[in-house]
Specification:
Layout (H helix, E strand, L loop, with lengths): L3 H15 L1 H7 L13 H20 L7 H23 L2 H4 L3 H15 L5 H25 L5 H26 L6 H26 L11 H11 L6 H26 L5 H8 L9 H18 L9 E7 L11 E4 L8 E7 L5 H4 L7 H8 L4 H10 L3 H5 L3 H17 L6 H25 L5 H12 L3 H12 L7 H15 L4 H9 L6 H7 L1
Parallel strand pairs: 1-3
Antiparallel strand pairs: 2-3
Helix pairs in contact: 1-2, 1-3, 2-6, 3-4, 4-10, 6-7, 6-8, 7-9, 8-9, 11-19, 12-19, 13-15, 15-18, 18-22, 19-20, 19-22, 20-21
């Protein structure tokens, strides 16, 4: 029988060999010249190998492992079980046309963004990946069947937004190596043409036949809660938590709004506050200054240890990602790379409508959520874990729960005392409570797509266009939208039971990686 460490190494090697783009993202660079194979036979072969490894993992007696190995065994076993079940029941490689866009896009973009090797070396890998994009698009056309119409519409939008990335962004980057520029430009133009053909195929041929259903159903939803996130709550429990949180936050918003402007409701005040924003020219610098403030506050208040040799760079959101990132987002450093620099995306704004999304009263919340001590700091800790398994396998409940918890933590510690910033924070928490309810009801067939959009507009006061974009994302990410509120709740409950000081609690909490809180609770 194979040892546990041997199994870990073989399973991770299969992860990277079967998905070179995942390997690049993880910081494993021996497959940087390859793009994922997505033909049916290859995918089925990988699936059989994963079934074999799950059987082998279950032969291991966890009581004979160290405590850390037991954590790894639990995390890895659950990750494989969920992946196998989703492969068989959801079959996203047959149903989600966006997969065949995301893999080439991020396969190239990650090599551009992360400076782990000389630019010439990375461009050689980019060139080889560009040559393989037509093959990926051909695999899409052979694999796809019975997609939900909403998935196909999302893919059409993504394809349209991606064409300019290949036409302009990649050739511009190639200017740094003149001898490679002509080859990269030619291959990149061919990639743009492949994406355009794919867009036309989806729009003119495939959309009319996209009659599939996106809800995953109650059984699979509860399974993901139990196995992927290791929650003791099922869909009914989540609904109860979401609805009670919604009512609690609405009440807090009403009281706070009355103290700010007695004649106005909270939604009207929020709209008024949006008119205070940086100019388009100073937008990125405003975020940079605010990030520095949150980092300094984290240090001054002794909230959590900041690992050495790290950095966070504010950059414009890449063109292809802007349709799904209207304001800001975060891209973490790779767990297996020495350089630990994260990237804070800010989507450029030119119109007054766009700038209103960057209110000076909401930017502090966004920066601490995405940067310090939110996603950036937490994922730096996860990358430092002395475990290959927990460097790469995670639950969104911990990651998103931590970032939302940090919003409340900074209020508790007095980072912002202005009630207008608190109003913006509560407004966002209300939106996250809506996510729990929609996540459950969408995927257990209690709410239609249109009803979900209306719910966000009515309850969270999102603009209809932004509400629609939100719900589009929820359709293909079941159990992720609920992660914020549920993860925050778990961390708050854990903190209430911990007897040490705050920094000690945070350092211990983050030292395990982005794993289910239930496993951390058992160790603490």
């Amino acid at each position: 029988m194979k040892s546990f460490h041997q199994l870990v190494d073989e399973i991770l090697e299969l992860r990277w060999q079967s998905s070179p783009v995942t390997a690049t993202f993880d910081g494993i660079h021996k497959y940087d010249h390859e793009l994922d194979r997505l033909d049916r036979d290859f995918l089925l072969d990988v699936h059989e190998k994963e079934k074999y490894y799950l059987r082998e993992l279950k032969k291991i007696d966890p009581t004979k492992l160290t405590e850390d190995e037991q954590l790894d065994h639990n995390v890895l076993t659950n990750a494989l079980e969920v992946k196998l079940k989703e492969f068989e029941h959801l079959r996203m490689w047959e149903r989600d046309p966006s997969i065949y866009i995301n893999i080439p896009l991020y396969g190239v973009f990650t090599l551009i963004l992360r400076e782990f090797a000389p630019v010439g070396e990375r461009l050689e890998s980019i060139l080889k990946r560009l040559y393989q994009i037509p093959r990926v698009i051909d695999e899409a056309k052979r694999n796809l069947k019975n997609s939900p119409a909403i998935y196909t519409k999302i893919a059409i939008e993504k394809a349209e937004a991606s064409i300019n990335f290949f036409k302009h962004f990649v050739p511009k980057f190639a200017e740094q190596v003149p001898k490679l520029k002509p080859h990269v430009t030619k291959a990149s133009m061919a990639a743009a043409e492949s994406f355009d053909r794919y867009r036309r195929f989806l729009k003119e041929e495939y959309l009319a036949n996209s009659k599939g259903d996106f809800p995953i159903g109650r059984e699979l939803f509860d399974y993901k809660l139990k196995v992927e996130h290791m929650l003791d709550w099922d869909a009914d429990d989540l609904l109860e938590i979401g609805e009670s949180t919604l009512n609690r936050v609405k009440d807090a918003l009403r009281k706070l709004a009355h103290s700010i402007a007695p004649t106005k409701d909270w939604a009207t005040i929020v709209e008024d506050l949006k008119s205070a924003h940086p100019s388009a020219d100073e937008l990125l610098d405003y975020y940079r200054r605010e990030i520095q403030h949150t980092r300094e506050f984290t240090i001054t208040k002794n909230i959590v240890t900041i690992p050495p040799e790290e950095g966070l760079e504010v950059i414009e959101t890449p063109q292809f990602a802007r349709p799904t990132i209207p304001y800001a987002a975060y891209m973490p450093p790779a767990p297996f790379e020495k350089q630990q620099k994260g990237f804070f995306y800010v989507t450029p704004a030119t119109t007054e409508e766009q700038l209103r999304g960057h209110s000076i009263y909401s930017i502090p919340i966004v920066t601490l959520h995405e940067g310090y001590p939110g996603h950036h700091l937490q994922l730096l800790w996860a990358n430092r874990v002395n475990s290959k398994v927990r460097k790469v396998y995670s639950t969104s409940v911990f990651e998103e729960g931590w970032a939302l918890y940090c919003e409340e933590l900074f209020y508790e510690l007095g980072y912002y005392t202005d009630p207008r910033i608190r109003l913006m924070q509560l407004k966002d928490e209300l939106w996250r409570a809506c996510r729990v309810i929609i996540d459950v009801k969408l995927h257990t067939r209690q709410m239609s797509f249109g009803d979900a959009v209306k719910f966000l507009v009515d309850e969270a006061k999102l603009e209809p266009v932004n509400a629609e974009a939100e719900v589009k994302r929820y359709t293909s990410s079941p159990t992720q939208p609920m992660s914020y509120i549920i993860g925050k709740k778990q961390i708050m409950e854990l903190r209430d039971k911990y007897s040490g000081n705050l920094r000690e609690f945070h350092d211990k909490l983050l030292s395990f990686g982005s794993i289910p809180v239930k496993l951390i609770r058992e160790r603490l």
